[in-house]
């Protein structure tokens, strides 16, 4: 279920969640992160689903992992796309996107997705798509109680997750309460090790907050600085490809910046 890694620890990590087959968003993030001095990329699951370029996105991710430049964990859409998990918990639009995605992927892509762990841990950090508490259950972290469960199970100072498409930061207080806060983009936040932290990075390829852009985060392990970035890219081109593929319209509109889901649910797709 989990894998503990012991190797050289890079200084800066790029945390990329929920790409959902959005190649243009991935390219924008990689170009920006290279200028931030990032030493390791972490793909926090859901590399496919919803978006028009699952094969090309997986080729990039798979190559980076193989080259030792990145690590990746399995997301629920990845699991469904490779047949490792069922789609019964998804809504009709999400299931349609998964069926289309499966038709695009070659066996090598499905085999690679099926080989990914649910969780990785290194140097007091945990990376998991959903919750470290029963990660295969794909639990959404929407409140302090759910964050506490993940932090307790992970046993790490810093836990980084995806799954929920809007960024959020949770931390433990001296009285053991867990508190959640929303962070401003492009403003570093110090994650002091005297607390435990759970950061939900937000979706890179399918925003749900009414603003277009490719979102990812950088964690500086030495300075303990965590920064969320949102990058402009050709989202209109991505939306056009979603429509051309015959995928549900809602996924194109999310990329364009429309809000089509009830606040607090993140779509639960």
CATH class, anyone? Alpha Beta
Strand content: 15-25%
Secondary-structure element order, as H and E? EEHEHEHHHEEHEEEEEEEHH
Biggest sheet record: 7 strands, mixed
Low-confidence stretches: 263-268
Which outline best applies? Answer: globular
Q: What's the CATH topology name?
A: Purple Acid Phosphatase, chain A, domain 2
Rg measurement, Å? 17 Å
The average pLDDT value, as a whole number, equals: 93
Number of domains: 1
Helix fraction by DSSP (H/I, runs of at least 4): 25-40%
Examine the secondary-structure arrangement and name the CATH architecture: 4-Layer Sandwich
Number of strands: 13
Structural class of the secondary elements?
A: alpha/beta
Distance between the termini: 23 Å
Strand order of the largest sheet: 1-5-6-7-11-8-9
Give the CATH H-level superfamily. Answer: Metallo-dependent phosphatases
Counted by DSSP, the helix tally is: 8
Task: Give a written overview of the molecule.
- This protein has 269 residues and is an alpha/beta fold.
- The protein has one domain (2-256): Metallo-dependent phosphatases (Purple Acid Phosphatase, chain A, domain 2).
- Helix content is 30%, strand content 21%.
- Helix 1 (23-34) links the parallel strand 2 (12-16) and strand 3.
- The chain is globular and about 50 Å long.
- The relative contact order is 0.18.
- Residues 263-268 have low confidence and may be disordered.
């Amino acid at each position: 279920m989990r894998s503990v890694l012991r190797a050289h620890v890079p200084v800066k990590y790029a945390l990329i969640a929920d790409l959902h087959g959005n190649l243009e968003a991935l390219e924008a993030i990689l170009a920006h992160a290279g200028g931030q001095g990032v030493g390791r990329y972490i793909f926090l699951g859901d590399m496919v689903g919803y978006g028009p370029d699952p094969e090309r996105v997986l080729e990039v991710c798979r190559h980076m992992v193989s080259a030792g430049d990145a690590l990746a964990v399995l997301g629920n859409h990845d699991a469904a796309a490779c047949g490792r998990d069922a789609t019964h918990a998804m809504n009709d639009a999400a299931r349609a996107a998964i069926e289309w995605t499966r038709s695009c992927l070659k066996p090598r892509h499905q085999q690679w997705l099926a080989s990914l762990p649910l969780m990785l841990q290194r140097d007091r950090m945990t990376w998991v798509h959903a919750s470290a508490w029963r990660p295969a259950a794909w639990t959404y972290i929407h409140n302090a109680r759910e964050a506490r469960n993940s932090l307790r199970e992970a046993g790490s100072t810093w836990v980084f997750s995806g799954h929920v498409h809007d960024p959020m930061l949770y931390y433990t207080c001296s009285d053991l309460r867990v508190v959640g806060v929303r962070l401003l983009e492009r403003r570093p936040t110090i994650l002091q090790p005297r607390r435990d932290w759970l950061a939900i990075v937000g979706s890179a390829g399918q925003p749900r907050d009414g603003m277009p852009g490719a979102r990812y985060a950088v964690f500086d392990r030495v300075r303990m600085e965590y920064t969320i970035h949102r990058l402009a890219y050709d989202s209109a081109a991505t939306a056009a490809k979603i429509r051309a593929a015959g995928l549900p319209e809602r996924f194109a509109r999310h990329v364009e910046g429309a809000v089509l889901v009830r606040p607090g649910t993140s779509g639960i797709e």
